[in-house]
Amino acid sequence: MKRWNPYLDTHFVFDHAAAIAEAGVLDDSAQQVMGSAIGHYRARTVRPHLQYFDCNLQFPEPLRIDKVLPGSLCIVHVLDGQWQHRVDGHLNQYTLGGTHGLGLSESMEAVDQLPGGSHVRMAGLRIAGDFLRELAEEDPALQPLLGLLDDGMQFSAFNRCRALGSLLERLYHSPYVGALERLNQESLSLAVLVELASHLSGEPAQVAAAPRGQRDIAHEARRVLDANLIDPPGSVALARQLEVGETTLRRAFSSIYGQSMLQYLRQQRMELARTLLRQGRWQVAQVAFRLGYANPANFNHAYKAHFGHPPGAER
């Protein structure tokens, strides 16, 4: 039976630049895979013909992937960085913080292409077109989704539907493992389809929004911090932005992630520093200034305290 999706279920973590072609991301239908990456990528089939995926990747050299995509719907939320591709000759660009949908009524050639030094952190779903039609037959409320599969290719931005991005961020930051993780991925993936269908139909949600719990507050805070690692907002400003009290914000973040927001920021900045140093494109002082350190000596001290060795050892 022909595969419905060229992307294989896989999970890899590269702590140094490694060839994507060797990672087992795509099946043999991919015509060309060029480039290397640092970071993680995972894809899992959560229900037949429904695949969840996410990644956080740095591309030290130019990336190019030539492939053929089947008739399907792909929903993507970019948490950080950039992503773009050409499908049937048309350039599609995914904006930071936005949720986009790529609907194909039939198989089409696609090319993913990014410059060296770029990066992306995103989460998304891939749904087979035939499976989506079956779901819509079973539940008429999902009929609006079929409009995304009409007339060749449709590339759509759903910037007014913030719930979509929130659901995909919850998938990305899932705290579960094993069977619970799979159940969580399946339920939230289906919730994405329901939310998108409701958005396309123009009907408001029928259920009143529940008050945000600690997990939601912590995830929202982490999203903002990740997007502003170099110049993060203070706890007071962040609490005001999320419309919660500062004490509530601090307590929620510490409870969910087991560390303060300041500790989290230091950790993420050090991880970013290590990635940049291992790319070999910048000197230690350049990385220090890029991360907002006015004095490279302070960066050296912080790096050694975090990793146990000076930043120069990464080169």
UniProtKB/TrEMBL annotation:
The keyword Ribonucleoprotein does not apply. Coiled coil: none annotated. Residues 219-315 form the HTH araC/xylS-type domain. Keywords: DNA-binding, Transcription, Transcription regulation. InterPro entries: Homeodomain-like_sf, HTH_AraC, HTH_AraC-typ_CS, PchR_regulatory_protein. It holds the Pfam family HTH_18. GO terms for molecular function: DNA-binding transcription factor activity; sequence-specific DNA binding. It comes from the Bacteria. One of its GO terms (biological process) is positive regulation of metabolic process. This is AraC family transcriptional regulator. It comes from Pseudomonas cremoricolorata.
